[in-house]
Design a protein that fits this description.
2 helices; two-stranded antiparallel sheet; alpha+beta; Beta Polymerase, domain 2
C-alpha cells in the first residue's frame, strides 16, 4: 500500500505493485498534460526493485523548454496536486498530491 502519514518516516519491503501504481498515475497525468511535450518518470526508492523504501511514489515530470509552465502547473493542480512552488534550478517545481499517496 502506498501511504505515509505526514511527518513520519517508515521503510517497507519493495512491493511490485508500486510500478503498476506508477503506470496508472502516469496515464492519468499524461492525459491532462497532452500537447506539452512531457516526460513522466518513476524516480526515487520505490522505482528500484528490491530496495526498501518509504511507501510513496516520487514522480518526475519534465516539460520541453518552450512549453507553457503556467499551463502545466494549472493542469497538475486540477489533478489534485498541491503546488509547493519552485525549488530552484536543482529542485525544479515541486508538487505533492494532497492525499499523500503520491509525491511529485
Amino acid at each position: 500500500m502506498l501511504r505515509l502519514k505526514h511527518g513520519t518516516v517508515r521503510l517497507v519491503d519493495h512491493d511490485p505493485s508500486w510500478s503498476r501504481a506508477f503506470e496508472s498515475e502516469r496515464a492519468r497525468i499524461t492525459g491532462d498534460l497532452e500537447g506539452l511535450g512531457c516526460r513522466i518518470e518513476h524516480i526515487g526508492s520505490t522505482a528500484v526493485a528490491g530496495l526498501r523504501a518509504k511507501p510513496i511514489l516520487d514522480i518526475a515530470v519534465s516539460i520541453r523548454e518552450s512549453a507553457d509552465v503556467d499551463t502545466c502547473v494549472s493542469r497538475l493542480r486540477r489533478l489534485g496536486y498541491e503546488d509547493r512552488g519552485d525549488a530552484g534550478q536543482d529542485g525544479g517545481h515541486v508538487f505533492v498530491r494532497g492525499d499523500c499517496d503520491v509525491r511529485s
